[in-house]
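Run folding on both entries below.
>entry_1
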Amino acid sequence: MEFETIKWELQENGIGILTLNRPKRLNAVSFQMVEELHELAGHLLINLDCRVLIIKAEGRVFSAGTDLKDGNMLGLRKTYEDYQKYYFLNAPEPIKKRTYYQWRVSNFYIKMRKISQPIICLIQGPAAGAGYSIALASDVRIASPKATFINAVINLGLPGVDVGNSYFLPRLIGLSRATALLYSGKTLEAGKALQYGLISRIVEEEKLFDAGLELAESLLQKSPLGLRMTKEAINFSMDSPSIETIIQLENRSILVCSSSKDINEGSSAFLQKRTPKYSLR
């Protein structure tokens, strides 16, 4: 697949690398980027050759958030014949334009959780708004000392909640810390993010990709099915009504994986004290 606002690479070993690629625009999330992210996410929903996904960004900024140039178009009453592929722009009222676009962009974060690949996000610099939520929706976050997490939308007269941040943030760092950030719009520095548990490591920027790659390669040593079902169980556990529900899901996962040939390789490798060699899928 070829894109303009993002880059996509799938290595032979099953590691996929998604790069936000608008450095001159500080990787702001434009209409086009939203559509390209949706296209890639839809592909990953059914792609078994990609086992782990790394998300990173070109330039000094991870993402400045929503592209304001595109966002201003949502406030106008005119329609845009040149933008037929963006259906929301041709709604008759600004409120409808904004509503339909909000639905479209926010559904990408749902897809991030629905794809079965664990997601490792590498944050080299500021991550704001929609870019912040890309980091939040990932499974593991590794950041450079220059990384910052910015949710300043409440300072613009809008709610401090957007594209999933009020869902992810309390679950990652706790309700009290999350509400303080969402109410205040304050920037979270890398050191404090590590203290809160939002990120797992701080790595110098020049070593950031290597750290992500090392983690991704370690996940390739796990059963492909087992890893996918682990992400599924974690997703369900975030909203489970009871421990009984999760125990039953875990039981199913164990029984399904124990019927796969992966269990033979995993057990043999463990007993022989070697790295397991699983098939790509």
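>entry_2
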Amino acid sequence: MKSSYKVAWVALAAVSLISAGCAKKVAVTTPPPLPPSTPAQAAAASRPSQPQSRPPAARPAPAQTAQTQRYPNAVTRARIDELLARIQDAYFDYDRHSLRPDALKALEGDSAELREIMAQFPAFKLTIEGHCDERGSAEYNMALGDARAKAAKDYLVGVGIPADQLPLISYGKEKPVCDEHDEACWQKNRRIHIVAMAK
């Protein structure tokens, strides 16, 4: 009986060996070698990884300076209005458009500071208005008011204010400041007046 167990055991071992020899061999593939790294890549690989930094926030645009603005800000505009209030109207003799000494003094008051401000804001303009008294025709007084405004403009251009910042308008006798019919009132109406233009 022992011999039959031995034979069965040997037969089983032989079958195991035969089946093991017949099994398919699985080919083992090795991964291809890594490409050689550059020194910079090697240094980067050796550094500890850092979290990605956020892109820098966009910087706000710098505030406009007086030189880059086209029009004066509120503070500067208030200063211009103050200067214009101090530059009194220039007055003229009857039927004349030449500047009298008192008219020149009125115009030169703060014209130097006004010139400096105007140079910083080339789009800003001052309108020179020409006015006349009630005597004479409407057409004649319109021409006379224009000549008076031009005389004042020539003076202001002479002190350095650019001509293109000084537009003219003549109102003739249409906008009097005094309605009496005497020389004292007529003198008040023969004038030029300077106003700041709106944007």
